[in-house]
Amino acid sequence: MSSQETSNLFGEVIIYEGHKRTVRSVAFSPKGSSLVSGSDDGTICIWDLQHSSGLPKPLKGHTRSVNSVTYSPLGSLIASASFDGTIRLWDTNTFQQVGESTRTPFDHACSVTFSPDGGGPASKPFRGHSAYVHFVSFLPDGTRMVSGSGDNTIHTWDVQRGITTTSPPSGYQLEGGVSSIALSPDGSQIAAGLENETLRLLDARSGVMIGKPYSGHTSFVLSVAFSPDGTYIASGSDDQTVRIWDIRTGGQVGEPFYEHTSDVWSVSYSPCGTRVASGSYDGKVIIDPGYNSPIMVVGGPFGDQWAGKLRNGTKLAIRACRASTIERFDEETLKRTVQEVNVWSKMKHKNVHQLLGVAVVQGPSLGMISGQMENGNLHEYMRKHPCFDRHQIYSQIALGLAYMHQRDVIHGDLKALNILISSDGVPKLSNFGFTGISEACLVHTDFAVMQPGSARWTAPELLLEGAIKTKKSDIYALGMGGVPNRPMELKANEPGDQMWELLMSCWDKDPSSRPSARELIGSLALISTEEG
């Protein structure tokens, strides 16, 4: 048995090779530290995800294909169902079979699941389907169970009585041939993979279809699985691809995964929701980094701020303006916005927050993607780190501003809230120049509303009607800050006096008398030398 790792633009793909025939089923352990797979070769493999290796010897006992494998809620047991008509339990610590096999009343067992309390796998006969049962799963309350069959029906069962229920309704039929189903984590929705190349979402309470078919696959949808938060669905298909779907938009997320070379029979989400495992006719088990679900940090009526990750773990911040809002922009605003995004994309300086890209995010919305700064903005950073080197931070902010001014880019809204601090304490200028987006869209959102005290950074000439922002108004803002506490005792401090004079020059009512950003940098360096 072996594993190999391949890289793509977004991160690492892990490929496990050990099975000799089709991998019919894959499942993550509850803690996400291991993965189990069942195969047509009659074996079960447990893959250690922390060390990227499989067991030296596969678990053997079944005499025909292993169609379904699953972990118990605590992860101490694995249940397997096989075409040999038996269900077996395996100890995940000793890797040995537990007790005797349970023989089903039929000549095959296609699916197995544990009850939510971990009391044991479901193995009691439930009669009602007229073809193979592809999938069984308990509802969260443990009193009911859902099953999907090749007879194109989905049934809900009363576990104690072994009969179909009327609430929620049972026996609803799907057109297109049901090949797989999955139950959402909260039990409210059912995803069905169909032979007509689509997925359908159903309300588990009423059986009513939700939205339109999910289209994209080019052959049978053989397996579906919900993400732990119920927001996404992974699907595997006879077209050799794995795809991710967002149930909020009904659309596909990103590009398909093309790592397999044959039919994809099983997909499974990791407990953390950041990885998708798949098993295929090619005999491989593949773990893809998947798509990390972006999380809305703050929402507003016209736009939102999201936090997310790339596949390689890089944390992202996404400022999104909804399409419905963009549609209301006039042509001039749209042109200006495009120009401003283009300007930001060309800013390459260690003290300027870099634009990583532009994307369509949930909604749909137009989002500007940049790196997430874990230390937050300068205002938050000062509160958490009161003893930080103010002179160094101020000098670096001036460097970033000088870089922008050298390229004839005006920030226009320089203040502590628009200066982000990286994990290593480096200030980065952000939210600059976006008159098109900021004023027409983002200014209306909760996260971009004008903060109390913003007027403090506004140069006096900007209060005049028709005034425009300039490099000199940026310098005024750079010189502003909080009013210092009155000292109890005055001490001689020549560098401090020089710094005060420098700040006073930034506040000059005559913009032409204010220093440039480059002149500021020179003065700061001189003050620093005298301090040393």
Which characteristics define this entry?
532 residues; alpha+beta; Methylamine Dehydrogenase, Chain H; Transferase(Phosphotransferase), domain 1; 8 helices; 34% strand; Prot_kinase_dom; WD repeat; ATP binding; Protein kinase domain-containing protein; protein kinase activity
Characterise the protein shown here.
There is one protein chain. The chain has 532 residues and is an alpha+beta fold. The protein folds into 2 domains: 2-293, YVTN repeat-like/Quinoprotein amine dehydrogenase (Methylamine Dehydrogenase, Chain H, 7 Propeller), CATH 2.130.10; 296-531, Transferase(Phosphotransferase), domain 1, CATH 1.10.510. Helices cover 16% and strands 34% of the residues. It contains 8 helices and 33 strands. A 5-stranded antiparallel β-sheet has the order 1-2-26-25-24, with no helix packed on it. Strands 11, 12, 13, 14 and 15 form a 5-stranded antiparallel β-sheet that branches. Helix 6 (471-479) runs antiparallel to helix 7 (494-506) and helix 7 runs antiparallel to helix 8. Mean pLDDT is 79; it is low at 5-11 and 435-453. Residues 291-527 form the Protein kinase domain. WD repeats lie at residues 16-57, 59-100, 126-167, 214-255, 257-287. This is Protein kinase domain-containing protein. GO terms for molecular function: ATP binding; protein kinase activity. It holds the Pfam family PK_Tyr_Ser-Thr.
Please tally the helical runs, counting DSSP H or I stretches of 4 or more residues: 8
Span from first to last CA?
63 Å
The CATH class of the largest domain turns out to be: Mainly Beta
Write the CATH homologous superfamily of the largest domain.
YVTN repeat-like/Quinoprotein amine dehydrogenase
What strand order characterises the main sheet? 1-2-26-25-24
Major sheet: size, sense and barrel closure? 5 strands, antiparallel
Query: How confident is the prediction overall: mean pLDDT?
Result: 79
The helix/strand class is: alpha+beta
- How many distinct folded domains? 2
Low-pLDDT segments? 5-11, 435-453
Architecture (CATH level 2) name of the largest domain: 7 Propeller
**Shape, principal axes of CA atoms:** elongated
Question: In percent terms, what proportion of residues is strand?
Answer: 25-35%
The count of β-strands is: 33
GO molecular function: ATP binding; protein kinase activity
WD repeats: 16-57, 59-100, 126-167, 214-255, 257-287
Organism: Rhizoctonia solani
Keywords: Repeat, WD repeat
